Amino acid sequence: MFDTPYFSKDMTVMWIKSAKGDIKTYELNEIVAHDEKDIQIEMLKARIDELERKVVNESSNEYVVEPVESEEPTNVSTIRKVKRKQ
Fold this sequence. Notes:
By secondary structure, the chain is an alpha+beta fold. The chain has one helix and three strands. β1 (4-7) and β2 (13-17) form a beta hairpin.
């Protein structure tokens, strides 16, 4: 006459059998409450990981040689020598 719940031994799966014989399956997950200190620790760990990735990227780019397009500056005009008749 009533819906009956059944649980797995490790309490991760629940089946509910209705009075009509229909069975529904649910997965159970524990929700762990975090206090302010736990949230701050997770935030700081994420920040440390981000900074470590940044350091690794900068150190890997340290020895990269960039190609030089032209040795001469583009804003300097060239001076031509003039030959005189003698």
